[in-house]
Every structure is written in structure tokens, then in C-alpha cells.
Amino acid sequence: MEKVNLAEKLASIHDHWNPRVVGELNGQEIRLVKFAGEFIWHRHENEDEMFMVLKGRFTMEFRDRKVRVEEGEFLIVPRGVEHRPVAIDEVDVLLFEPATTLNTGNIVDAHTRRHLEHI
Amino acid sequence: MEKVNLAEKLASIHDHWNPRVVGELNGQEIRLVKFAGEFIWHRHENEDEMFMVLKGRFTMEFRDRKVRVEEGEFLIVPRGVEHRPVAIDEVDVLLFEPATTLNTGNIVDAHTRRHLEHI
């Protein structure tokens, strides 16, 4: 039962698209990740995902539209929906999602991170 | 799939200890609440709770110690652990917890909110 300081954890992350686990509860994880550039199109068959912007902004692309998510905003992407996050500049994002969630969903490629570091 | 702006939602909350639901995913809810003063001692038998401070600070009291949670920090209280939040000044808090979580846990009194408003 130690509190977690988000800024301290974020300061230790020096790469992109590589989520770290900073909290676990009820089978869910709180993850921190930095985005920069374009990710890949993917979907999660069994998991809804929440993206909360802590610093910066990014665009969540869907097949039929785009949603720009700014600092202090969050977006929930329901299971089954294809999406692709795109960040022009680096952005700090907090994720809430089931511990089973693979970052690239139904796609496995060089972006896939199967074993997330706990920081 | 609409994004949620936390400041806009918080601006519509004018009472204390009355959580509002602002997001739902994977059987969990994202709730916003303002604390001020002392809450009651309680525990949740089956739910872990996450408290993230968006603005201000509060103290989570446990039977054997206290943890001060500041803006930009979060604390996870595991199921079964008695706790009591205390805020000297008003504080904006984001909760992430199962949709089944009753705000007063094992206690039912005037603080209990059985049907949370979705805003």
C-alpha cells in the first residue's frame, strides 16, 4: 500500500510504445506509456482499453473517424474496435485495462510487448 | 466512443463524498468525486480501490498508519483493508474500481450512495 507518483514513474521511461505496469487491482493494470509517432492498427477481442492523457496530446484513429485526446482527457476504446494511436509529439499516457491486454491486440509484430516491466 | 474531459465533469460536481460515473470498461467504473472533511471507516470485502488525486491532497487513514496522497499520485487500497479518507480542504479524486463497489463498503449509513449518477 505505497502511493505512486506518476511524474516520478514517467521520468524513468525513455522509450516509446512500451507500457510499464505501475499498479494492479481487480485483475486490471494501471500502465504508463509514452507515445511518439504512429502505432499499428489493431484491436483487442476481449478487452476494453482506457487512454488518459497526462501530458501532451494524441489522436486515436478509427476506421471511420479520428478523436484528438488532450491533456486531462480520456477515451475508452471498446473491445473489438480497430484503432491506431498517432502522436505528432511525445505524449504521456495512463492506461487502465485488464492485465491480459496485449499492447498490439490481434497483431504480433516488432511492436508487441509480451512481458511488461513493473516499475 | 466520446472522449471525456475531467475538468468539465468536475465542474459539474458541487457536493462531497458523492461519486459520479464518467466511464465504464471491463466491469469497472471510472468515478469522479470531491472529498472534504472526514469520511467513515469502512472496508470492501471483494473490491480493490484506486484513488488518484487530480487536484489537492488528502490523507488515507489505515488502522496502523496514514498515507498522504498528493496531486499526481495514486493509492490502491486492497480489498478487506479498513480505511478512511480525510481531506482538510476540498480535493478532486478519480476512482477506478469494480462497478459493484459501494462507496461505504461494509457500512450502510447516511454516506451510502447506492445509485451513482452518470455524468
SSE arrangement:
2 copies of one chain form a homodimer.
Chain A: E1 4-5, H1 6-11, E2 20-25, E3 28-38, E4 49-55, E5 57-61, E6 66-70, E7 73-77, E8 84-98
Antiparallel strand pairs in A: 2-3, 3-8, 4-7, 4-8, 5-6, 5-8
Describe the structure.
The structure is a homodimer of 119-residue chains. Helix content of chain A is 5%, strand content 47%. Chain A is mainly β. Chain A has one domain (6-98): Jelly Rolls, CATH 2.60.120.10. In chain A, strands 2, 3, 4, 5, 6, 7 and 8 form a seven-stranded antiparallel β-sheet that branches. In chain A, strand 5 (57-61) and strand 6 (66-70) form a beta hairpin. Chain A is globular and about 40 Å long. Chain A binds chain B through residues 1-7, 23-26, 28, 30, 47-50, 62, 67-70, 72-78, 81, 96-98, and chain B through 1-7, 23-26, 28, 30, 47-50, 62, 67-70, 72-78, 81, 96-98. Strand 7 of chain A pairs antiparallel with strand 1 (4-5) of chain B.
What is this entry, summarized?
2 copies of one chain form a homodimer. Chain A is mainly β and 119 residues long.
**Main interface by residue count:** A-B, 33 and 33 residues
What is the second-level CATH architecture of chain A?
A: Sandwich
Question: What order do the helices and strands of chain A follow?
Answer: EHEEEEEEE
Helix content of chain A: under 10%
Determine the oligomeric state from the structure: homodimer
